[in-house]
Design brief:
By secondary structure, this protein is α+β, with helices and mostly antiparallel strands. Helix content is about 50%, strand content about 15%. The chain has helices at about 15-30, 50-60, 65-70, 80-90, 95-105, and strands spanning about 30-35, 40, 45-50, 70-75. β1 (about 30-35) and β2 (about 40) form a beta hairpin. α1 crosses α2 (about 50-60).
Length: about 110
């Protein structure tokens, strides 16, 4: 049921193929009219923080297809130093971030 996870890293700024799968699904099901070969409506993408990195990577690495599908995109609050941010989270907060992520992944 739903859309499958296609990468083995859930908390990963390079996981743009997962986003591509979602955008393609929405486009095919709700936006593109196969009978007329035209769009029924416009489609936009918005993402912030880590999601902004993922959306940005999607726009860069699948540039032709994303330009064909999306009518606009906004990336907001994109962390520029992802490695530094990861190091900060894992080395601070008394290990709570690591424990929280581990708890979520074990559900």
């Amino acid at each position: 049921n739903g859309i499958p996870v296609t990468s083995n890293k859930l908390n990963y700024a390079g996981a743009w193929p997962d986003l591509k799968l979602v955008i393609d699904f929405v486009y095919d099901k709700y936006v593109f009219n196969k009978a007329t070969g035209k769009k029924r409506t416009a489609i936009y993408a918005y993402a912030c923080s880590l999601g902004a990195n993922i959306l940005g990577n999607y726009l860069i690495y699948d540039i032709e297809r994303s330009a064909e599908i999306l009518d606009g995109a906004v990336v907001y609050g994109c962390p520029w130093d992802v490695k530094g941010g990861v190091d900060l989270f894992y080395s601070n907060f008394y290990g709570l971030y690591t424990k929280f992520i581990g708890t979520l992944l074990s559900w």
